[in-house]
Amino acid sequence: MSKRTLASLTAADLEGKRVLVRVDFNVPLDGNGKITDDTRIRAALPTIRYLSENGAKVILASHFGRPKGKPVESMRLTPVAERLSELLGRPVVKTTDAIGAGAEAQVAATNNGQVVLLENVRFHAEEEANDAEFAKALASLADLYVNDAFGAAHRAHASTAGVTEYLSPCVAGYLLEKELQYLQAAIDNPQRPLAAIVGGSKVSSKIGVIETLLDKCDKLLIGGGMIFTFYKAQGLSVGGSLVEEDKLDLARSLIAKAQEKGVQLLLPVDVVVADKFAPDANAKTVAVDSIPDGWMGLDIGPESVKQFEEALADCRSVIWNGPMGVFEFDKFAVGTEAIARSLAGLTRKGATTIIGGGDSVAAVEKVGVASEMSHISTGGGASLELLEGKVLPGVAALDDAA
Fold first, then answer.
1. What positions does the entry give for (2R)-3-phosphoglycerate binding (predicted)?
2. Would the annotation count 297 as a binding residue?
3. 381 flagged as catalytic
4. Which end of the chain is flanked by fewer CB atoms within 10 Å, N or C?
């Protein structure tokens, strides 16, 4: 780690201190306002407990949803505070605002070891603008700063970057440290062979990561909707499948770069096609050069799964980002679920498997193999940018390690 971490702070550094902790509690809710997946809350518990057990006054800050700079009742952090209280086994104070007299009074009334959760920081437009006065107001609540929100570390916002101008020390929490260690080690110093599985609907959203991985990995497996842009670039008919017409030259250049670098680039050999984009669509499996007019590809086929599994069999490190198909529809989730199970098997054999956030995480959780992966990233966008080799503003703002 090039940045200072929570482990560098002792009980003497923490006792009686007000510690502002940026967490990522942007969790999904159902229609009744109940949390459907508390992974991100549980991921922050080691940092919260360490601070609390060492006598700090723990002040948590998080965003929730996209309220566009104003209070939205359905985006208050009340259900998060309730769930966090359950997980910690004691009450968590939830403030009525992120800054201001009310928040100041509630923090001032906090005892050593207690946990306070500030209201949604994105209720203030100044948060995303990284406004200096808002950052200063947040910082005034605390004595030092811990960033444990990997999922927001790629944003230069007031609570991820701005506050570091007014607090010291500023360190990485346990979750952020773990994310950086796994993801950076995977691309900078992996056990080989290293395979990357990249899925999702569009090439355009994954250009940077594919280009970077072609410089790093031994094998690159591509799935999801983006495969049809590659097929069309090679002169194949793709029926009604999703294609980015303006990315055909790019797809051809990526194939050429893989050959030039000696990277084994695998595209599916068969696909599951549907007559409409719907969970109840008629579906059939066809070779990639036999997609019927008007039909669209929504998953990789069984021969492709077999091909991918064979390619992964000898790999010592695997990074996966993006589903193989429209896994939200059970009929078209087979390819994605098969890859998830395959990676669980590789982990059991000693390989390092890293699930890079977003839909890939939802997929391994849906299949029930999340606990069998080496590391599951809590940040989709942040993990992509880190894999691309970009500097994350929320990390750059922290103190350098001695």
1. 40, 122, 155
2. yes
3. yes
4. C
CATH number of domain containing 358: 3.40.50.1260
In a domain, 343, yes or no: yes
Please check whether residues 375 and 233 belong to one and the same domain: yes
The whole-number average pLDDT for the span 179-192 is 86
Residue that terminates a domain, selected from 144, 175, 206: 175
- 64 annotated binding-site participant: yes
Least confident stretch, 26-40, 311-325, 355-369:
355-369
Judgement on whether residues 157 and 197 belong to the same structural domain of the protein:
no
User: Catalytic residue among 40, 178, 232, 247, which?
Assistant: 40
* Beta bridge partners of residue 273, listed in sequence order: 284, 297
Residue 399 lies in a domain: no
Is residue 248 one of the residues assigned to a domain?
yes
Range of 168's domain?
6-175
Catalytic residue (choose from 202, 257, 316, 366): 202
Coil, helix or strand at residue 379: coil
Q: Which residues contact 361 (CB under 8 A, 6 or more apart)?
A: 39, 355, 370, 376, 377, 378, 380
pLDDT at 87 over 80: yes
> In terms of Cα–Cα distance, which of 250, 247, 388 is closest to 319?
388
- As for how many domains the chain has, the answer is 2
Amino acid in the structure at residue 115: V
CA-CA distance, 183 to 186, in Å (whole number)? Answer: 5
Q: Is 358 a catalytic residue?
A: yes
**381, HSE (Cβ side, Cα atoms, 13 Å):** 10
Q: Is 18 a catalytic residue?
A: no
